[in-house]
What does this fold into?
Amino acid sequence: MNVRRILSQHPRFVTGARGAVALALCLTALYLSAATGVGGADQGVAVRMPLDAIEETRGDANAPVTVVEFTDYQCPFCRRFQAESWPALERNYVDTGKVRFIVRDLPLSIHSAARPAAEAAHCAGEQGHFWPMHQALLARTARLDEASLLEQAQAMKLDLERFRQCLTSNKYETTIARNSAEAAALGVRGTPSFIIGRVSHGELDGTRIAGAVPYADFTEYLDRLLRER
It folds into this structure.
């Protein structure tokens, strides 16, 4: 990744505190490329994305920093992020009101079970259990066949028939396709990928980072953004 080229393409980030944040993100991305197997072209790119009025979100809606994760429930790197980075991020940043965390599904074509799992998450969300289902689907040992999805819904004491009908009818096919199209428009090519930045007038102005970002690296650039306020 050519840091100088990236910064020159986005001159509003080059000076002052914004320049320091952008430079730190780009340098961190060099490490992430090696650690996660994601190409450097996917790292440190400034993007802007619209947010919906209703999102699958955790944390304070008015938090100073927003993170959007594009996830695939069959992706091993997504499961690594969930197991290794998310618990501390949730405890230290989301639960404390510093970060609003949004999840959008991005089932990749190479993962045959990913889209049904995304449907399962949305169907559980109808009954107020999106986040418990999201977490269960990303567990290291989670199975994503239909029988296992139904077993998980039963364990959560969901209305099983309602969940089954939702799951088998592909009710959220349009929502999932829209999320995938949005990801493509942003240049997101793999999972997990993150857009990290600030929200203004319903749009997230941030930086695209790809890969199972270690907690220490998230801490570094979240803290920089928080200090920039």
